Amino acid sequence: MANIFAFAEARNGELRKVALEAVTAARKLADSTGGEVLALLVGAPGISAKAEQLAQHGADVVFVCEHEGFTQYNPEATAALAAEKIKGGGYRAAVFTTSAQGRDLAPRVAAKLGVSLVTDVIGVELAGDVLTVKHPMNIGKVIATVDIAATPAIIAIRPNTFTPAQNAKAGRVESVQPVGDPSASRVVVKELIQGGGGKLDLADAPVVIAGGRGLKAAENFKLVEDLADAFGNAAVGATRAVTDDGWRPHSDQIGQTGRLVSPDLYIAVGISGAVQHLAGMRTSRTIVAINKDKDAPIFKVADYGIVGDVFEVVPALTAAVREARRGH
Amino acid sequence: MRQLRIIPEEFQPALPTERLIVRDPLDAEAVPMDVVFVGGGPAGLAGAIELAKLVKHDNESGGTLGEIQIAVLEKAPGLGEHSLSGAIVNPIAFRELFPEMKDSDFPFRAPVTKERVYFMMGDRAQRIPTPPTMQNHGYYIASIAEIVRWLGEKAEAAGINVFTGFPVASIAMEGSKIIGVRTAPTGLARDGSPGSNYSPPTDISARVTVLSEGTRGALTQAYLESEKIGSENPQIYALGVKEIWETKQPLDSIIHTLGWPLPNDAFGGSFMYPLTPNLVALGIVVGLDYRQTTLDVHELLQRLKTAPLIRQYLDNGEMVEWGAKTIPEGGYYALPKRRFGDGVIIVGDAAGYVEVASLKGIHYAMQSGIFAARTIFEALKKNDTSEQALSAYGSLVDASYIADDLRKRRNMRLAFQHGGLYGGGIKATLMTLTGGKFPGGKIDSHADASVAREPADAPRFVPDGKLTFSKLDANFKSGNATRDDIPSHLIVGQDIPPEVATLYQHMCPAGVYERDGDRLVVSPANCVDCKATDVIGPRWTPREGESGPRYRLM
Amino acid sequence: MDVRFKIGADGTSIDDSGLKYDINDFDAWAVEAALQLKEKAGQGEVVVLSLGPDSVAETIRKALSMGADKGVHLKTDKIPFDGFAIASALAAELKDGGYDLIFFGKMSPDSSNGIVGPIVAEMLGLPCVTAISKLDIADGKGTAKRELEGAQEIVEFPLPAVLTVDEGLNTARYPSLKGIMAAKKKPLEVKPAALGDKKVAVKKLELPPERAAGRIIGEGAAAVPDLIKALQTEAKVL
């Protein structure tokens, strides 16, 4: 009967999706031990209103710390508080996420507790005394199965891997005090700047639409941009052939000598699928290819393919995606 | 209708000697070296190792030379990464360089035990008796990349400064003397202006510069041209395209083939060697004086692989590396008349020491490096690095097996230029049987670029991605990760007609040139430095370090 | 080169025969950041510290060729996966160094864990900012930028501090020929690494599963509805 700790990440007074993922993963572990999930949520006064969402996803208890000093991410104060709560609670494991914040926070907490941790965890299993996780090494080319002997086992799960699941629990809110004075932290986040002008970066975008020579001319990239627009959370990429010709800037080039991307959905428009290009996107979760040549190598790598004229298929797809996303 | 004939040299720009040779004084901050080897292949490394050994012994026995700074400048990011060969190696030069070692200490994979030669008719293989020139008993199968890395370790251990990722862009000359070299700048933007990561060229002064650039060396060509050093016949070249496969079917013999898929009027053949325990190296070599604009050596290799003889070793296997490189084939009469000068010695493939009939060059390269080292050692002791002092190198080569072997087989390759496979084959056989006496004299040869080519129908090649590969996919397997926005290092002629674009597209094994509609599209980042382009197409010039292929097993 | 890894005979490490190790990009950016600060200040010393087997000496030499002044090699036969153990050894070495700034790369591609820098900072009791993509140091204080998902943080911190470096901070310089020659004469101290206890252990390594074969949904615009359905119900990305 072991309890599991979960850290709920928030930004600008809202829970981030990774917070729900962490609670979901913690719930899965707790269910296998017959224990409880206790989540920690910190933020500016008012954040406690978000505790309910954590309860919906399986938190039995939500520790809430409301303080002006947590308006922005406060690494030292957050780490100190998390470590304190974990130390006292006899947890089997503590779940963080491998977000930018999680990568910063989780190692600090582990060090304070005198234990190690594993980040970018894509699978987790608790069998008796042993917590075993799966962690991609060598930039994803090798998967390691790692045993964590220490208690608590600190893990940071990979975002977008543990789908948030509704599993309503009591979610009893407990108000907690920060450790020391958060405004005495040496490291101070002065400002949070929201992402530049709505243009998603290739590295972060959950959806990437890439265009190749099959688009025939630079101005036809509008088709790709419209499709990206229809998704709402997509970035636009290009092949080397197209950036060499100057249709798109080099920073848009996806491939072995360009950007490496790993989105949830990758749509290749008018791209034949040279190995150099594939090297830049082959770890994408789902790959869709649209090309008029049925022998194009891209179809060997794509999960779903449409053989056809991109000038017909892409506008139809754009309209269908817009329709499907209506009401999201 | 008049058949279109293309003569490549009509579209080839001249060698840019004004770039390859600098005549202003070296930078005041030039790095002072005693001897610089341009190119870290077997010739350069053997030379450096032998020189370091001679200096060390001399100092230890009370000589007054003192510390001699030796540098090897290699353009590849790592030693061996731009080296490619079959290879079957005659160990003679290794034994000369390391007399204290046994053959089993050398970086060879296995001794040659069995060998088979086939004549291909279509994809059917007919076994034929091994021609005497191709007997390899007593030799070893090796990877030249492994040999170079091994020599590199020995060089580093001997205190030689080995600089990888430093291409030499120009030789520095004062009158007819080479006084040093200048490396290529890095971090240039597409238009040639310094980018954010710009690093300027470095000047290096040297008392002797050894040109060990390998096949079709740009600096060697520039030096010979500026000093008006010619040869009896122009140098001619073949292009080799090679793949390394992980195999599930063990190969216990070395294999050579002649005939299909080469057309009868093209010179060349293929090889397949086991790299124990579970790799095979296979490749095809074709003379660049081929007659069809659509002849495509990479595609010929892909087609060859479909023959049952070859395919049986590749099915269920995996291609792990691909590469390409030219080989000088002109032999004895194509050697430059003088291969040394004021402050310079030319060694290895750059000098043309390759014997085509037996497909050998590595031991000649190393031996010539050793001769250069001995000559330079004496010159340093006398403090005289003039042409006269370095002429001893020429005498050493002329009195050695290098000159002897090349002279014996001097007309074999050339016979093919005039007789094709059958006529040439007969002449070649006669030559072997008579130890080079008949046919005697010298057969004239033409430079590859002056040989006319005509369009011919080329069968459509569709790679299957498992046994056969497109040039782009193959290029990826060379380890080539040259940055895409690198400025072009290729000098293309003006107004290239579409038919010449077709010639370039098929000539280049790496996919640098493409005919798109009627225009020529150039992707310089694809270049693997094989130098075929320099022979019959746009001129090749040195580009920034860290460019090109990264061969591990070639 | 797109390396295809092979699992070693022991099943818990990769077979690195025939592979060449080199400084990783994050570490190169970290070294570059230190060199730029020293150049800007016109004085100071850049020390490069690394932990690992013999092959690590070459990586330290590369940093010395870039311009670092001194190298320290903490020798160990095998680099453990456990970053805590590594951090213990590094912190012990760094403790009395009197450094104004300690730079780490954000993560090592080998372990792909990214934890050593912040753990060392905790062990040394120093302020720490991770994954910086911009840096300014003035008057004993620092300002850094961190990239988040769709946003950026501006962070202030006092010196001395530990910083981990991400892409975008700078472009690492290539060693010059002179730099390479000078590096040969720079001091490189070798000591045994005092690794901490290993608290996590790799039990097994395997190659990622091959992608399942895909399918052609159909031809032309008519295939779009089926694609949407597949993306919604099968792939669950829409």
Q: How would you explain this protein's 3D organization?
A:
The complex is a heterotrimer of chains A (328), B (554) and C (238). Chain A has 328 residues and is an alpha/beta fold. Chain A has two domains: 3-184, HUPs (Rossmann fold, 3-Layer(aba) Sandwich); 196-325, 3-Layer(aba) Sandwich (Rossmann fold). Helix content of chain A is 29%, strand content 29%. Chain A is built from nine helices and 18 strands. In chain A, strand 9 (130-137) and strand 10 form a beta hairpin. The longest helix of chain A is centred in the N-terminal third of the chain and has 17 residues, at 17-33. Chain A starts with a strand and ends with a helix. The model of chain A has no long low-confidence stretch (mean pLDDT 91). With 554 residues, chain B is of the alpha/beta class. Among the domains of chain B are: 15-102 and 145-234 and 332-408, FAD/NAD(P)-binding domain (3-Layer(bba) Sandwich), CATH 3.50.50.60; 412-446, no CATH class. Chain B has 15 helices and 27 strands. A seven-stranded mixed beta sheet of chain B has the order 8-7-18-19-20-17-21. In chain B, strands 10-4-3-16-23-22 form a six-stranded mixed beta sheet. The mean pLDDT of chain B is 92. Chain C has helices at 25-41, 56-66, 83-94, 116-124, 177-183, 224-234; strands spanning 47-52, 70-75, 101-105, 128-138, 141-148, 151-158, 161-165, 188-192, 200-206, 215-219. With 238 residues, chain C is an alpha/beta fold. The model of chain C has no long low-confidence stretch (mean pLDDT 93). Chain C is globular and about 70 Å long. The relative contact order of chain C is 0.18. Chains in contact: A-B, A-C, B-C. The A-B interface holds A 240, 243-244, 250, 253, 256-258, 274-276, 279, 295, 297, 300 and B 462, 465, 470, 472-473, 475-477, 481-485, 523, 525.
